[in-house]
Design brief:
Blueprint (H helix, E strand, L loop, with lengths): L4 H21 L16 H7 L7 H6 L5 H26 L5 H21 L19 H23 L5 H25 L3
């Protein structure tokens, strides 16, 4: 391994380790852990974000992004992906690649919660159930997964064009890479149809 790659690899290992530790302590509920209150309450955050648009849909239309808003859009989109894949697994049984990707979505949420704590932003309530697309069959589920990951990738690419703190930028880049892997998995499974 060359000298330039070592710091990046060490940072990546550190971020993943912290995410795993945070992920181990989270429970699968719709309650969110309390973080240190910031100057903006949940109501203030909601006022800044059009609640009719959620996750990537909101981020891709928002022309006045802040770190706080990006974190909120990102976790909303990860909540949405998790909720979609959870619905699919409950409805259609244990299906590839949903059974693996749902675990990755839990990890993405845990990694984002670390940043919420650091930047003293309140984690929003998981309202993804209000925005779910409920596919009729596995092919529709895979198509939904493809589109969700395309939107998620576009969101993270837009975020990475912004002026970001280094840790936020590296987390978004890591989540973008994960979404690219998820997209490939969904496309490969969809090609079987």
């Amino acid at each position: 391994m060359n000298r330039k790659a070592k710091p990046f690899v060490l940072l990546l290992v550190l971020v993943l380790s912290l995410g795993l530790m945070a992920g181990c302590s989270t429970q699968k509920t719709t309650e969110t852990p309390s973080t240190t209150p910031s100057a903006s309450s949940d109501e203030t955050s909601a006022a800044k974000i059009n609640v009719a648009v959620y996750g990537a849909a909101g981020a891709l239309t928002d022309e006045d992004l802040t770190v706080e808003k990006m974190l909120i859009y990102a976790i909303q989109d990860e909540f949405l992906a998790h909720g979609e894949y959870e619905y699919i697994l409950q409805t259609f049984g244990d299906q590839n690649p949903f059974n693996n990707i749902i675990k990755a979505e839990e990890q993405h949420i845990a990694e984002l919660k670390i940043l919420f704590g650091k930047y003293k932003v309140n984690v929003p309530e998981d309202k993804s159930r209000e925005h779910l697309i409920l596919p009729a069959n596995i092919k529709g589920a895979l198509e939904t997964g493809v589109q969700a990951e395309i939107d998620n990738i576009a969101m993270y690419k837009k975020f990475l064009e912004q002026d970001l703190p280094a840790d936020v930028k590296s987390t978004f880049a890591l989540l973008l890479k994960g979404s690219e892997n998820h997209l490939a998995a969904f496309q490969n499974n969809l090609n079987k149809y």
